[in-house]
Design goal:
alpha+beta; Immunoglobulin-like; 2 domains; 9-stranded mixed β-sheet; globular
């Protein structure tokens, strides 16, 4: 996430659907969300809440005015298509039973295996007994009501008889199904707990969770001006949807293990109406319009942490331009933002080419940028989210977010105490880029950082032990970037650039923490940086 410094140029229905039917009244005294759907969406959702085996990314619905389709897999894509799932799964003669349509095969799921941990800063947003491997999302947004079904393929990390995920209380879950069987669940405190019965450590299971409601954003644990609108699902003044969800917020629109230690694969179908379309991470595999409904189907082929997932819904048009090195970058713009296209194309191309030269091979298969409302910018994986009015200098901001594709998205902090592992690297790369392209003088940028870093440490704590209610203050950006500059001074420019590339390449796709970084750096360089790292991350004042 880009940190903007003023004056700083350096840059629902009842939880158990019973015989009374899905429109039975619940204790809140209002109509169930299912009863308020458009006719098309109501029929789709009626199909979604069935207790049979899991369906695909979106159901085939006839004579409803809405068409959803199975994703059309690109060559090499793990997504299964064109299959019909029976009401009750039956085991084949040999091998394991097939997963739900749209869920990757077991060998693909293995790449998403993680070691989830309890977060030391926001423990309520971590569920270490669950390692989610894949999310299959079917989402329908009519401008007021979100209806969806999430199929969660997960690995139990320990023996357990209950599983918890994060889900906003504004969204009501219907009948939940585990491995083809209906189970009980309970929603409370922005969480949903499933009575699974005994699960063995290491076993893989499938949860199907239908839900509906009017999504509500959640307050940010921060005083940052660009986060005052809240985290997660947000509505812009023109009715467009956008999300910023660091350190959490994905739970405001789908059930999720909302923690960076649990990366997962995604396949997502988004249905929107009246000229609006859905934008997501990864590759757009299919788009189909029928009547006033458009369904976009997306495939994310590298595991992502939930805070790096984005959704934007609005009157978007896609523009694609190739960089000199051959990467196609897609730009998703609303009509009022079309004038930004030439600047965005120039700056994103410059940023991408610089990053590949100085950081290494791009770790993902696609790259895009979606312009949204709000007042921030976010390194959402493969699809950068950028508020149109958030910044005065898009070149520096885009470079910052592009560099995060390596530092944060590919190499991800294991918990939120390690946010400096994201922002320190991205901040350093931003200054490095600005110096290389003659935008600022390196020494001047470093001196400015020192002034801001001291003030931030005094108000928000040191970057390695910051105040949890001051999330994303400049202390986690500038202090670690200054630390990297000191490491560069000891190693020399050429060796430091080798270290940058090696750290990103050797830890691609992993989650990391301070100990991993320190041990690796000491071993890689043959020098001892332990004391230097501790001073810069733990000192209450900026070290000299």
């Amino acid at each position: 996430m880009q940190r903007i410094l003023a004056g700083w140029r350096c840059s629902p229905w009842p939880t158990n659907v019973g015989s009374a039917g899905p429109c039975a009244p619940h204790g809140l005294g209002r109509r169930s969300a299912l009863c308020r759907l458009r006719p098309a969406a109501a029929l789709v959702l009626t199909l979604l809440i069935g207790v049979g085996a899991c369906s695909g990314v979106a159901e085939q619905v006839a004579d409803t005015g809405q068409v959803s389709q199975q994703p059309t897999s690109a060559p090499g894509s793990p997504t299964q298509t064109g299959e019909t799932q029976p009401d009750s799964p039956t085991a084949p003669d040999e091998g394991p039973p097939p997963g739900p349509v749209g869920v990757p095969d077991a060998d693909v799921l293995e790449m998403a295996e993680s070691e989830p941990v309890e977060d030391p800063y926001y423990p309520e947003m971590s569920n270490p007994e669950v390692d989610v491997l894949h999310y299959l999302l079917a989402l329908d947004w009519d401008g007021d009501l979100l209806t969806g079904k999430t199929t969660v393929t997960f690995r139990a990390t320990e023996e357990t008889s209950t599983v918890r995920l994060d889900l906003s209380g504004a969204l009501e879950a219907g009948q939940v199904v585990l491995d083809g069987e209906a189970i009980e669940h309970d929603q409370a405190d922005d969480g949903i707990t499933f009575e699974t019965g005994p699960l063995a450590a290491g076993d893989v299971h499938s949860l199907v969770i239908p839900y509906a409601g009017q999504p509500q954003h959640t307050p940010a644990p921060s005083g940052r001006a660009d986060l005052t609108a809240g985290l997660g699902w947000n509505l812009d003044g023109d009715g467009s949807v956008y999300t910023f969800q660091e350190p959490y917020g994905a739970f405001t629109w789908y059930p999720v293990n909302d923690h960076p230690s649990d990366k997962a694969l995604y396949d997502t179908a988004i249905t929107a109406y009246d000229g609006q379309v859905g934008v997501f991470n990864g590759i757009l595999e299919a788009s189909e319009t029928s009547g006033d409904a458009t369904t976009n189907t997306w495939h994310l082929d590298e595991p992502a942490a939930s805070y790096l997932v984005t959704i934007a819904i609005g009157p978007y048009t896609e523009h694609v331009q190739a960089t000199p090195s051959g990467m196609d970058i897609s730009y998703w713009l609303r009509p009022e933002d079309e004038g930004l296209l030439p600047t965005l194309q120039r700056d994103a191309t410059d940023a991408f080419e610089w990053a590949v030269e100085h950081i290494g091979d791009y770790p993902f298969s696609s790259l895009g940028l979606v312009v949204v409302g709000g007042a921030s910018a976010m390194e959402t994986q493969t699809m950068i989210t950028l508020s149109a009015g958030a910044v005065e200098r898009p070149d520096a901001v885009i470079l910052h977010e592009v560099s995060h594709q390596w530092f944060g998205d590919s190499v991800t902090p294991r918990d939120w105490q390690g946010m400096w592992l994201n922002e320190g690297w991205a901040m350093y790369c931003q200054q490095w880029f600005e110096t290389d392209t003659s935008r600022t003088q390196y020494a001047l940028g470093i001196e400015n950082w020192r002034r801001y870093d001291l003030t931030s440490r005094l108000t928000s704590g040191p970057p390695g032990d910051y105040d949890p209610e001051s999330f994303g203050d400049v202390n986690v950006y500038l202090g670690p970037a200054l630390m990297l500059d000191r490491i560069r001074q000891r190693l020399g420019d050429a060796r430091f650039e080798e270290i940058v590339k090696a750290w990103a390449a050797e830890h691609e796709g992993e989650t990391v923490d301070r100990q991993i970084f320190t041990n690796w750096l000491n071993r890689e360089t043959g020098m001892n940086f332990t004391r230097l790292i501790s001073r810069w991350l733990d000192s209450e004042r900026t070290p000299r």
